[in-house]
Amino acid sequence: MFRIKEAHIAKLTKQHIQLILRHLLLSLWVFDVEKLIGRIVKRFLVVWEHLSGYTQGHCC
């Protein structure tokens, strides 16, 4: 009886650990994606400002 309980608990903790690890990996991945998007947006904004400044300076 005790052995079955122990095995069950071990199985549960293993599942828990896998779940937690998966969650951590997912949040790290999401964080990386957010950072990447932020970088792309920043770069785009810099280029956009440069281009709009360039066109404004030349057209008007």
Helix/strand layout:
Elements: H1 2-59
Report on the architecture of this protein.
The protein has one helix at 2-59. With 60 residues, it is an all-alpha fold. The chain has one domain. The longest helix is centred in the middle third of the chain and has 58 residues, at 2-59. It is rod-shaped, with a radius of gyration of 26 Å. The model has no long low-confidence stretch (mean pLDDT 86).
H and E string: H
SS field, number of helical segments: 1
Largest sheet: none
Task: Assess the beta-strand content as a share of residues.
Answer: under 5%
Percent helix among the residues? over 70%
Mean pLDDT: 86
The overall strand count is 0
What would the principal axes of the Cα set say about the shape? rod-shaped
Cα-based radius of gyration, to the nearest Å: 26 Å
Enumerate the spans where pLDDT stays under 50 for 5 or more consecutive residues: none
The tally of structural domains comes to 1
End-to-end gap: 86 Å
Structural class: mainly alpha
